[in-house]
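Page 47, continued from p. 46.
Same chain as before, 679 aa.
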Amino acid sequence: MNTKRCLRCHKILRADAQECSRCGGHDFSQAARARNTVRLPRTATAEVNVELEIEEVPDFDEDLSFPSNPPASPHRAGHYSGLHPEDLPYQSSFMPVQRPVAPARPVAEPEIIQLSPVVEAQNSAARRRSIAALAPQTLPRQQRSLQRQTPLPLDPYDDAQPEPIVAQQPERAVLPRPVTPFPEPFAPQQHRPGIPVARVLVLLAVLFALIGTGAAAFMVLRSQVPATSQPIPKVTHTAVPGSVPASTPVAGLPRLQLSVSRLDFGTDNAGTITHKTITLTNDGSGELTWQSSTRERWLTLSPDHGAFTKNMTVQISVNRGNLQPKAYTGQIMFTPRGSQPQTLTVTMGVNPPSANLVISNAALAFQGTPAQNPAAQSLSVQNTGGQPLDWNASISTSDGNNWLFLSSTSGHLEAGQSATLTVTANSAGLSVGTYSGTVTLSYTGASATPVSVTLQVSAPPSANLSVQPSSLVFTAIQGQNPAAQSFTITNPGSATLDWGISEDANGQTYLPLSTTHASLAPGGSVTITVTPNVLSAKAPGFTSIITVSDTDSGTTVKSQQVKISANILNEAQISVNQNVLVFNHTSNITSSSALLIITNTGSATLNWSLSINNSSPISWVSVDTTSGSVGPGGSIYVTVACDSSHLNTGTFTATLIISDSDANTQVAPQTVTVQLNVT
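Result:
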């Protein structure tokens, strides 16, 4: 195979290569190849055969030409410059030899230098280059591979004294040597090892974890700061000589102030509850949130916490209850958020035991109707003091009517004694509405205590009655019963309806009912079925009235009626044993017959006639009789015959009509379909 060598990087290429596949150069020299095999001494385990590659390079003045032989890989797919991988000399296992020094000369030639695909893309401008001959190799050259290709050194070449390259010591094998890089203008970019991806991912994960932890800590600290807190401005106090520094409120923050710092409820009897109010003021700015606490069980306030911007009223209560007679002092601690707490001192006293009337209820409520009074209620009075008392009671109503009553209007109670009073409200006769009254109890040495009484008079619940439909019509032949029918009873009222049904003489004789009485809840309904039994009834029939009413005494529910009409007809009625007759004929069976039974199910004589309706022009169906008379309950037999001897194959249909031949008759006719299948 003919080859040539690149004068720039010394790569051996095919003779037909247009450019160097390593550096992209276009200057080549012809080279003849010869291979000698030198057998080295045997090692301890194997014999090594080394092929030495000796190349002869002609003078550069020699005319270079390209041979016309085809490439070793005609398909030229996946290879560099058409050179098949197995024919690539550079990647063979041959060992290089020593070459003599050859002078070189610089040649100015504008040409794009392509060291590698990456370097070629970056260095697109033309540069000056040097054409060098092969230089002696003093160090072993590295074995090249597909993963790493280090450019060969460039040696200058001298045109004035061209000398062929002569192999030195052809029998001596030279081990691979490191390659000297290109001169600085032609040096390819050095490969810099990148940072491992795993290390970058770990660093990023640690960074994001630190950021997330800091953000979470910030949010926790911020959530603990009050929403109304604001930056504290710097306050400068100017000291006056000889004065005491005062506590100055910081602007921009809420500051709680009490309208009073001490609250006295005075002295009263045990069991007395006293109320007073104070005002909480915000001397600062923003919203002030506060809460309170106290250790005294007799001391309460309402509300006991809150938030406000300017001021807020709080009710302080003391309950002397069963406290011992003496003076009491308590404190309420008001703790604001973002401000100094404030203390309210509360004092009160309990008098020695005295007569005291305590009432069990402060209000009573009654509910009744104009027809029914509400139940009475109890009112207890007790002397919780240490002295006896005489009490009195009075009654008053807002409308002036006497509907409120009390079982007793006066009494005497020893210390600790109690009594029970009965309070009655009468709603009977009152109009629907709301009434109010007052029961006032008093005793000597104390103010009167009122007990409010309310009476609600509502309309009484009542039932209602609705019946649908309001009429039923039955029609039957004399001696026969018609089909059953029904009606529905509904209670649209607000109370239970106890209903019952009554019938007149005809109803009791001919119209039995499924049920005649029951109770119906509000909004409920029930269905009543009427099953006439008119076998003994004669024409033309009868009528009946069914009455539905409320069975409760004194009821105001209006009764409802259902009108029943029964029409009894004295006439004949036609009935046949079957309405379809089917005949099947073949070429062997051309005639057949069937029996038709006509029955008079009516109460009068039936004068009947039979007609044939045949769609075919050929008469293929016939009967043995076409008319006659039948008494009530009687029957007659008619033979229906079919003849298919003149018919083609197929299906033929005819209709037999049996009707009453009397004039102005109301008897319904009957039809019988005759079907003939000819195969």
